[in-house]
Amino acid sequence: MGLKEKKQPANKPEFLHLQKEAELYLSGKNLFDEGKVAEVDIKKLFRELQVHQIEMEMRNDELRRANEELDVERLRFSGIYDLAPVGYFIMDMTGKVEDVNITGATLLGRQKRRIIDFKLQSFITPECIEEFYVFLDRLNTTSTQLNCQLKFFKDDAIVIDAQVEGITINNTLSLKKQCYIAVMDITKLIISEQQLSEIKNRLELALEASHAGTWEYNLKTGFFSMDDANYNICGLDAASFNGQYKSFINIIHPDDRQKLDNALRTAVNQEKELNLDCRILRDEVLCYISIRGHVVGEQRKTKRFLGTMMDITEKKILEIEAGRLKIDQHKRIAAAIFETEENERRRISELLHDSVSQLLYGIKLNLQQLKTDNENNDTLATINNLLNEAVKETRNISFELAPSVLTDFGLPATLDELAKRFSTPQLRIKTKMTGLKTRLSLTIEIVIFRLIQELLNNCIKHSGADIVIITIKKTKLLEIEIKDNGVGFNVNEQENKPTGSGLSSIRNRLNFYNGIMRIKSQPGYGTTVHISLKL
């Protein structure tokens, strides 16, 4: 706190001789007797002396108050100086410490008396001595504030890192230069920076090993930033990426952009985790990436969305290959089952045709050779009719199990025979086939025959139709359509609550050959089943 200095009044010329005579008068000389001051106004002289006396008393009071204020300021400065969180050192240009505050003494782990009059370099570690002398020399040649980092001994055992800032000033009393040094302990900061650097290096190694990089989306500015690893993953040049949201979305394969946009907006708005696998085109090659991220930031601060992007192309290819191998394995197992079923059907069919059917036919021939009276002719005729029905039924069963006509003449002839055998006066079955001039593989023909056979059985059992039309068309795909005019059914209810294994069996066979089945039906309007097979 500064004091307002009172302006000194100038002595006027008319009072100069009075002041001199007053001094002589006070010294004991009687000027009045000599007649030299006969005209002097004694009252005026006394008044001036009284004013001067009062002025001196006022000045004395002001000086006393100023001293008191200076004492207060000194105490305040002393408190700030000693209790400051930074160590303060005052030293000469050789480095000898002339004063130090309590924090500085505590920083060095010594009492003030063991620091003052010692050179500061005696507390600095040997590897930093040269740097300190360079710092001291620069302070001696400039009046600007300088800084450096040094290592100090604390209690002669512990080494601490410190940030040193200093400036040189001219002492107005001693007229010599002094260095004012502020020393801040940054040991914890250095350790934290080292730990952070180690963590960063480990993270970079982990990201490099996992083919991953980091990206950030600023929720306030809408700016995307990516590291070099991400640019490499996406096959981009850093200069060509403008950081816009749309540019980030356009990196993704067109078929996956909407999915990523929806997932990212949901994660940002609801502050949820983002975890999504997408496809990208890198150098015209389809690649796979895994994108993860979450919102970070305190409530009152700007929030950001931080994430990682990982190249999972190799992993995805292995998964696809594993899935393909698994499907192939299932297909081989299913093929083995189907083949076993067909072999068993064929064996049973051959047994029926070669043994049971022949046996029944032999019985019929023997009955025809019997010579009986007219009374037994009716009985023989009945027996003969039953045998005819048994032979016919046996042949139908044999045909359904394994039609030999399929092996010998192909699918069109077999379906015509199937329609003929299943047709009755109450049910007419028609077939329409195009593009089947060239035979398909026997395996595919057997699959198609079984599908149509199963659908016809369902139609006969449940539809109540009197007309069924079977249409087969071969182009790039093999398209099969079975249409009836029966009672129809609710497709959704049947899908949710299946009552039989017929449709499930058909779907299993279609899945084996990557086929698709669509059913169109409603009560009272018949049923249409459409099947597509990739040959």
Can you describe what's shown?
This protein is α+β, with helices and mostly antiparallel strands and 535 residues long. The protein has 5 domains: 67 residues; 109 residues, Beta-Lactamase, CATH 3.30.450; 102 residues, 2-Layer Sandwich (Beta-Lactamase); 81 residues; 132 residues, Histidine kinase-like ATPase, C-terminal domain (Heat Shock Protein 90). Helices cover 51% and strands 22% of the residues. The chain contains 16 helices and 15 strands. Strands 2-1-5-4-3 form a 5-stranded antiparallel β-sheet, with helices on both faces. Strands 7-6-10-9-8 form a 5-stranded antiparallel β-sheet, with helices on both faces. Helix 13 runs parallel beside helix 14. The chain is rod-shaped. The chain starts with 12 loop residues before the first helix and ends with a strand. 17% of the residues are buried.
Summarize this, please?
With 535 residues, this protein is an alpha+beta fold.
Question: Could you give the order of strands across the largest sheet?
Answer: 2-1-5-4-3
How far the N terminus sits from the C terminus, by CA atoms, comes to 101 Å
Provide the gyration radius in Å: 56 Å
Structural class call reads alpha+beta
Mean model confidence by pLDDT:
80
> β content, as a range?
15-25%
- C-alpha geometry: rod-shaped
**CATH fold assignment of the largest domain:** Heat Shock Protein 90
Total beta strands: 15
Q: Tell me about the biggest sheet?
A: 5 strands, antiparallel
CATH class annotation of the largest domain: Alpha Beta
How much helix is in the residues?
A: 40-55%
Please work out how many helical segments DSSP would assign. Answer: 16
Low-confidence stretches: 1-10, 29-39
Number of domains: 5
CATH homologous superfamily label of the largest domain: Histidine kinase-like ATPase, C-terminal domain
The CATH architecture of the largest domain can be given as: 2-Layer Sandwich
